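Structure in, sequence out. Go:
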């Protein structure tokens, strides 16, 4: 049964849960916890109230927010990334997570021309075309997805990949998922919109149409553009739908919902930007779009 989730990063907090939960929320997404014991605390809470939880890697905060360089052309970095993946997948399986999520590609890949928004990954946090060619990206993707399939099967732990910026490698990215349907996709609605504005020729609807059947989870938030900059992780409100300053996050969700009846949604927004009644209206709007009925548990 599909569900709506909230983020619960760094530690489980009952106060935070009660602050942001609502009648439709049936899960949470964990990330960067201080210890295995802290994860067990969140798991115990979820089990008590029949909730599900997933994990956004890294699962522990041992090294900070360090994402594995899954498309690194450096063999040693690539081997280290796979080692990190396997370690985290094993721990997620031991903890009973519904899924564990990693970004791909990471680093993001860029090819000119693109709109140089200040908040895009800087040159030290991305690969340019002279650092990672399309042929190299395709070879790495094929090897990576095969290995992820093996790890997923070995530990019986669902692995999902959240799309990051892939420049003109959309065709390669798409084929990797279609050729390996056991590895599912996480859609980020804000990043879709940023990619549309930053990279000429990218069409979010074309992308969603091709990979709709592969989507397991949506990270739902919006973005607002101001001059040559943007702010993201915004709640998605109805008044944004026809405002050209905002992204089209609700439209993307609606388009995907017409093509996939099973994906879940994590609200990846800063809830402090809106009133509590607006927050609950946002939950209700998404639940109605997805055909989710009211859950009995709201908080404690």
């Amino acid at each position: 049964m599909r569900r709506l989730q909230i983020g619960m990063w760094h530690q489980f907090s009952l106060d935070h849960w009660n602050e942001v939960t609502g009648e439709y929320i049936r899960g949470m997404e964990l990330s960067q916890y201080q210890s295995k014991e802290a994860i067990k605390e969140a798991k115990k809470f979820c089990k008590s109230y029949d909730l599900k939880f997933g994990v956004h890697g890294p699962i522990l905060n041992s090294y900070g927010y360090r994402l594995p360089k899954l498309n690194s052309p450096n063999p040693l970095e690539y081997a280290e990334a796979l080692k990190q993946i396997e370690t985290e997948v094993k721990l997620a399986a031991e903890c009973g997570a519904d899924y564990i999520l990693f970004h791909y590609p990471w680093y993001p890949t860029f090819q000119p021309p693109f709109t140089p928004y200040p908040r895009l990954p800087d040159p030290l946090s991305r690969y340019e075309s002279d650092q990672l060619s399309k042929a190299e990206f395709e070879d790495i993707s094929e090897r990576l997805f095969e290995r992820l399939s093996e790890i997923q099967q070995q530990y019986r732990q669902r692995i999902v990949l959240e799309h990051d910026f892939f420049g003109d490698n959309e065709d390669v990215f798409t084929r990797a998922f279609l050729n390996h349907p056991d590895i599912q996709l996480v859609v980020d609605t804000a990043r879709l919109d940023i990619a549309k504005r930053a990279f000429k020729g990218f069409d979010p609807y074309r992308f969603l149409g091709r990979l709709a059947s592969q989507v397991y989870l949506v990270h739902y938030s919006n973005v607002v553009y101001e001059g040559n900059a943007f702010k993201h992780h915004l709640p998605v409100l109805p008044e944004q739908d026809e405002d050209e300053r905002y992204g089209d996050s609700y439209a993307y969700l609606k388009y995907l919902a017409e093509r996939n009846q099973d994906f879940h949604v994590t609200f990846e927004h800063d809830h402090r930007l809106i009133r509590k009644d607006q927050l609950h209206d946002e939950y209700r709007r998404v639940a109605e779009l997805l055909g989710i009925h009211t859950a009995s548990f709201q908080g404690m």
